[in-house]
Amino acid sequence: MKNFIKKITFFIIGNNFISFLLYQFIKYRNSKIYVINYHKTSIKNLHTFNNQIKFYKKNFELISENDLLKYINGEKLSGKKPKLLISFDDGHISNYDVTSKILNENNIKGLFFIPAKYIDRIEENSLESECEVSTNKYNIPCFLNEEKNHNRKRVSMNWNNINELINYGHSIGCHGYLHKRLSKNLTHEELEEEINKGRKIIETNIKKPIKSFAWIGGETWSYSNQAAKLISDAKFNLSFMTCAKPFDKAQNQLQLHRFNIEDFFDLNQVRTVLFGFYELIYFLKRLKVNKITKI
User: What is the pTM of this model?
Assistant: First the structure.
């Protein structure tokens, strides 16, 4: 079954006409809100990423975290197109020196989810050590040669970078403390650390309340009912998952699903992710995840 789905996916991605034709479906969903998530953004993929941004501006109304909160509180969002919020996970330095520049040029406000300790740490003595710590301690992939090509000394953002993002109108969300999956295998203390300690450290450093949380990882086992209860008890306004579904006012605001897109996706891949095919693929997984996290 998985091989069949892969073949269909690759066929659609590789076919300009089919991916474009099926994407027209999205134009009839103007009451829906889409949230997409990226991870790092590379200088070598600038052209592709810029094309994606142009695509979003043409086909969606771009919104911010504040717009989404206003909508949930009863305000109407302007525009006749579907709405789109762009988010970025993990706090990689490229989200600052590549992503934010492009967003600022296009007057787009992003939502950046950061693992608190990944930001709140002392820079390592070498780029090799930076990559080792990123990969092994925080489970955030690091590609040493690419970082060297960019002449970087640090692979994560620091608090100055985060506060500069805020000054440009972007929003910051919590993505854990040590970037651990919030599975049932974590102790209550570990879950508290990821959810509450992570949030507190971020709020202390940016002098603003954190309203949004993003679960770490997208595997079914990376969700747990214990974590869902703590997120609810922490009074987050929004909590984001990763099982590909748009939403409207009827959606549980602590079970909002995102569509994963990366900076190297061409427009056929972007259409394939957003036009509904991925919603079908993730349907059973989404039901299971929502059941696990229902409180």
Answer: 0.92
